[in-house]
Amino acid sequence: MISNDAEMKRMRQMEQTIDSTQRGCTSSLLMSCIILTLTTAFVFGWGLAAPNMYNHYTELFLKGENPCSIEYDVAIQSKQNLTVISSINVHSKLDVMIDEDYAGNEKNINPNFQLSPDTLRVNRDSNNNIETNMKKERLDFVNELIKGIPQTIFLVGAFIGALTGPFWLKVIDRKQAVYVNYIFTFTSSLCMLLSYYLNVSWLFYLSRFLLGYQGGMACVVVPSYIGEIASQRVRGRAGSAFRLSLTIGILIAQVTGMPFMAGNCYSWGWGLAIVSLLPFIGLFLLFLIPNSPTQMIAVYNNEEQAREDLRKLRGTENVQADIDIIHRQIQQRTSGSQSKVLSIPKVLISARYRWPMLTTMILQWSQALSGINAVFFYSSKMFLKAGISPTMIPYANIGTGLINVIATLIGLSLIERIGRRALIIYPMVVMVVVFGVLTFLIEYNEDRNSTRLGVIAVIFVFIFLVCFSIGLGPIPFFYANEVSRPEARDSIQALGFVVNYVGNIILSLFFPAFNSMLGGYVFLIFLFFLLISLGFLWLKMPETRNSTIGDLENFWKIPSNPPSDSLIVSSVKT
């Protein structure tokens, strides 16, 4: 009995010396991350990838045609194309015969020779066909722009959601903001199903806008929520859970879009809408997640509730180290000249926040224009250009999603070992090389239609996905939190997301047209943007792992601010 009491006393003494900020991933934290990300980030990933699986149905639907008549339409179009080709061939052959006859028999030409009415009619018809085809080529650019509108509307919604996300956090707490996020998903699914059954195209566009808003809002609300409930030791990995769930959503959307599931003319509407089941389940699970301890103290002045939540999240009774850091951060936000959160205009004109802001914005711009969303929005068209058989394209799409998930999991284990800067710079170098190779492969295979070259092109797309998923994929989501002082953090994060979605909007609007016009050369656009970003980040992006705000400001040669120099902004050395 005495030995047991002594052992318990020793354990209590040891617990008093535990630094709660160095606790690992507890069951409570893991459950919180799973619920938060699968009901928000997963939905966003679904919204990014699902339309690509149903393009051939939704394009007809938005034109007011019946998607289930696609086989008939294709057969008719093929027959028309063959007729046009035959007419052109007849006309070309006739021209050659006449030219040859004229060249060899100039002196023997019969001046009374006339083409028969049938031949003249063939010429007129073939000329009309040629003019029609030329007009069609001129309209291709416009048609491709129109096809990009649904994805553009989705990204406009995401842009607005990211821009207004901080507003929700000012009027309600983080958990309530997640409930609001669910409402946008439910409304989007309802609009999609109504559009599908009532054949109303504007409801389709409204659904895409609402789901985009959900994703943009989630990017602001959820990563900051996770950052405030995770310990400093695992904050990088916990923050990457958002990106991981997003990639899983992309993969599951691609699998669901297979023809034997929702990828047919009778089920595509449900394939786009069924994702709301996860937020519905989240309605009953979200109450299990602890509140944000930072918000409990800073906004509601409820330290007791914050301690109770931290005990669950850390798995220990002694959470004083976390409480001290929260109070220190609150003091930094309310002391001195920076008595409140800085607005975006003030951050833009301040020299102190210039380099944290610019590196954040360039990282987000690089993520947007790296080509990753072109792969998930338009991978079917890209693979078709590469020479992949249409029957194999759905499986190639699933391959992109699977590689994305696996590489993201690998990236989670590397972030705290290798560091942020290395995982950004060196994979970007490989991505530049990949785009150069893809340009050559697709253009070289344009007329050959070699399956082998097409498979090699797909392999290089997979290499690109791996490089993206371990660096540019997860790191921009939490980089701003690591390099920014508390008073400017929200504004710098918002600026980063604004740049990201502007880039994605431009990409979604113009990529289909450029892909149609440029073929393999379209990858040179991504190569150009990556090279510029790579040069900037090589010179100005610091390593944030185990660094303080003071360390980073010394790197940028920014005058130090003593009260914040001890603030740890990344995981503490273990």
TrEMBL record:
<keyword id="KW-0812">Transmembrane</keyword>
<feature type="transmembrane region" description="Helical">
    <location>
        <begin position="148"/>
        <end position="169"/>
    </location>
</feature>
<dbReference type="GO" id="GO:0015149">
    <property type="term" value="F:hexose transmembrane transporter activity"/>
</dbReference>
<keyword id="KW-1133">Transmembrane helix</keyword>
<dbReference type="InterPro" id="IPR036259">
    <property type="entry name" value="MFS_trans_sf"/>
</dbReference>
<feature type="domain" description="Major facilitator superfamily (MFS) profile">
    <location>
        <begin position="81"/>
        <end position="545"/>
    </location>
</feature>
<feature type="transmembrane region" description="Helical">
    <location>
        <begin position="268"/>
        <end position="289"/>
    </location>
</feature>
<protein>
    <recommendedName>
        <fullName>Major facilitator superfamily (MFS) profile domain-containing protein</fullName>
    </recommendedName>
</protein>
<feature type="transmembrane region" description="Helical">
    <location>
        <begin position="520"/>
        <end position="539"/>
    </location>
</feature>
<feature type="transmembrane region" description="Helical">
    <location>
        <begin position="362"/>
        <end position="380"/>
    </location>
</feature>
<feature type="transmembrane region" description="Helical">
    <location>
        <begin position="210"/>
        <end position="230"/>
    </location>
</feature>
<keyword id="KW-0472">Membrane</keyword>
<keyword id="KW-0813">Transport</keyword>
<feature type="transmembrane region" description="Helical">
    <location>
        <begin position="29"/>
        <end position="49"/>
    </location>
</feature>
<dbReference type="GO" id="GO:0016020">
    <property type="term" value="C:membrane"/>
</dbReference>
<dbReference type="InterPro" id="IPR003663">
    <property type="entry name" value="Sugar/inositol_transpt"/>
</dbReference>
<dbReference type="Pfam" id="PF00083">
    <property type="entry name" value="Sugar_tr"/>
</dbReference>
<feature type="transmembrane region" description="Helical">
    <location>
        <begin position="178"/>
        <end position="198"/>
    </location>
</feature>
<feature type="transmembrane region" description="Helical">
    <location>
        <begin position="392"/>
        <end position="415"/>
    </location>
</feature>
<feature type="transmembrane region" description="Helical">
    <location>
        <begin position="454"/>
        <end position="480"/>
    </location>
</feature>
<dbReference type="InterPro" id="IPR005828">
    <property type="entry name" value="MFS_sugar_transport-like"/>
</dbReference>
<feature type="transmembrane region" description="Helical">
    <location>
        <begin position="492"/>
        <end position="514"/>
    </location>
</feature>
<dbReference type="InterPro" id="IPR020846">
    <property type="entry name" value="MFS_dom"/>
</dbReference>
<dbReference type="InterPro" id="IPR045263">
    <property type="entry name" value="GLUT"/>
</dbReference>
<feature type="transmembrane region" description="Helical">
    <location>
        <begin position="242"/>
        <end position="262"/>
    </location>
</feature>
<feature type="transmembrane region" description="Helical">
    <location>
        <begin position="422"/>
        <end position="442"/>
    </location>
</feature>
